[in-house]
Amino acid sequence: DLGNIGIAHPAWTTTWFKLNRNDISAWQKTPMQEGPGGLAKSGLLGETIGKVEAHILKKVPHLSKSPKELDRYVAQVLAGQTLKINGRKFTIFSDEFAKYRSEMNLAPTSIDPKQADDDFFNAFHNRGSEMILLGKEAFKGILGIQSTGEFFEAVKSGMFLKQLALREEDLKKEFGVDGMEYKTYVKEMSSKMNEWLISNANDSRSATKLGHTKFPAEEDYVLLTYLQKGLINIQTLLKLDTTATSLGPIVIRQMFDSPPPAVSREEVMRIATEYRNQNRMTEAGFKVIQGVCYPGEGVQRPVNRDSDQPSANSPKTQAA
C-alpha cells in the first residue's frame, strides 16, 4: 500500500516499496545486519539508502549518534537536493549513485502534476524534489504542453523548470564547473530536456509562445537560460522545424541579443551547414538560420513576440 502512494505522483520514491517488495520481503526474513551495509539486499532503494548513509558517515562520522538527523540528510540526498554538512558536500549526482539515477530515469512512469500541491514543485520552499531524477515520460507529464505553446499546468511547470535551473546553479556553486557532480547533472538533465524538446515542442504553432515563456515572476526566458546553462543544446534547436517563426530561430536570436552568446555565430552556421549537407535541414531552413546569425543580408528574421518588432538589440533586416 505504501508503494501505491507514489505511482504517477511527484513524490515517486515511495513507489520503490512496491517495485522492490519481493527483495524487501526476503530481506526481512534474514538475520539483521548492523550498519548501512545491512540494507544492501533489500532492493534498489534500500541499497541506495545504505550507500548514502555510508557516504555521509565517512565524511561526518559523528552523525552515527544522531540517527534521526542522519535519516533527514539521506532523504534530502535522495530528493536530489545539494547537501552541505560542516563544509562537506553531498549530492545524488555523485558517481556512487549512478545506478540509482539510471533506474529512476528509466522508471516507466508518467506524472500527474495535479496530484501534488504547487509548493511541492517550488525549489525556493522545499529545495526541490526527486522529480528531477525521473525520465522522459515523467517530464512529458509535468511539462505537458498545449498546441498554443502554453503549459497545461502553468504554475507547476514554471516552478519545475526553475527548479532545474536552480539545481544547476547550486551544483556549480558547490562543486565548480569542473566538478564531476556538476558535469553529471548537466549531462543527464540536458539529455532529458533535449529529448523533451524534440518529442513535445517541435510544433510551429506553439513555438512563439513557448520560445517567449519566462520563469515565474522573472524576466529571463526559460529556453534561453537553459541554452546558456547547457541544459539544452544548439544541435537540438537546429533539429527542430526551422521556419522563421519556429522555436530554434527564436531562441538563437535571443542568444545573440544577450551577449556574450553561449554559441558563436560561426559555430551555429557550421552545424547548420553540416545538417543541410546531410539533408537534415532544408535549404529554406538553412537560409532562416543564416538570417538569424547574420541579419541584414536579405533574410527574414524571427520577430520578438513581446513587441511584435525586431529586437532593439539587433539591426533591422529586410524581408527576402
Word description of this protein:
The protein has helices at residues 2-5, 16-19, 21-28, 44-59, 67-78, 98-106, 123-126, 136-142, 154-175, 180-200, 204-211, 222-229, 234-239, 247-256, 265-277, 283-293; strands at residues 83-85, 88-90. With 320 residues, the chain is mainly alpha-helical. The chain has a two-stranded antiparallel sheet with strand order 1-2. β1 (83-85) and β2 (88-90) form a beta hairpin. α9 (154-175) runs parallel beside α12.
Beta-strand content estimate? under 5%
**What is the average per-residue confidence, as pLDDT, rounded to a whole number?**
84
Helical proportion, percent range? 40-55%
Count up the helices: 16
Record field, number of beta strands: 2
- Biggest β-sheet, characterized? 2 strands, antiparallel
Descriptive keywords:
mainly alpha, two-stranded antiparallel ribbon, 16 helices, 2 strands
Layout: helices, strands, pairs:
Elements: H1 2-5, H2 16-19, H3 21-28, H4 44-59, H5 67-78, E1 83-85, E2 88-90, H6 98-106, H7 123-126, H8 136-142, H9 154-175, H10 180-200, H11 204-211, H12 222-229, H13 234-239, H14 247-256, H15 265-277, H16 283-293
Antiparallel strand pairs: 1-2
